[in-house]
User: Which sequence fits this backbone?
């Protein structure tokens, strides 16, 4: 694990360095020891901003937080990265499990292509592999799992900038809010990381 610290108008103190390293030790239990970390600590007027970026297997986990104290901002940024690490590890495990399951189920279940040998001519030595495709007898339908979330809705009117910050702070991909005129708007994070604004009619 390599950790690089950058201070922007802020001198990195040993206490903050120790806090970051302690938080990263917890992440090692989830991600292992093969990741690089870049920590940017900045001070602007009366607010402190901590940005922690972890790079693992061509993926980046980013936690940004701001607070009145640097130790509080670092703690919140580590919490955000921690949540993302758990999501990443769960997704990675499910992909590995699905691949293992697919290779283990060699018997044909009628859902995919079946391979069989067909003799060409009079001898079995001239047999060739033929792939037989068949449509499934029944389609599998998965039921949608719906969970009520009040954390993705703002209770007070806010500007777009405030809504973006709030969505980042709450670590939400979808965030519903009302602007100052009372119009309902939705912020949605696309797969490329950009935020999309949807205005309800």
Assistant:
């Amino acid at each position: 694990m390599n950790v690089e610290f950058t201070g922007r108008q802020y001198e990195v103190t040993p206490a903050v360095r120790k806090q970051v390293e302690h938080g990263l030790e917890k992440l090692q239990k989830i991600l292992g020891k093969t990741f690089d970390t870049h920590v940017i600590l900045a001070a602007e007027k009366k607010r402190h901003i901590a940005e922690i970026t972890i790079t693992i297997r061509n993926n980046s986990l980013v936690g940004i937080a701001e607070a009145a104290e640097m130790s509080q901002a670092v703690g919140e940024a580590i919490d955000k990265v921690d949540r993302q690490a758990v999501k990443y590890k769960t997704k990675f495990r499910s992909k590995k499990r699905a691949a293992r399951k697919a290779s283990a189920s060699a018997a044909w279940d009628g859902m995919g292509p079946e391979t069989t040998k067909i003799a060409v001519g009079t001898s079995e030595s001239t047999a060739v592999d033929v792939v037989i495709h068949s449509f499934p007898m029944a389609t599998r339908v998965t039921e949608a799992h719906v969970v009520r979330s009040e954390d993705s809705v703002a209770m007070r009117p806010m500007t777009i900038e405030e809504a973006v910050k709030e969505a980042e702070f709450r670590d939400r991909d979808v965030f519903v809010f009302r602007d100052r005129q009372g119009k309902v708007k939705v912020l949605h994070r696309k797969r490329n990381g950009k935020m999309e604004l949807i205005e309800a009619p």
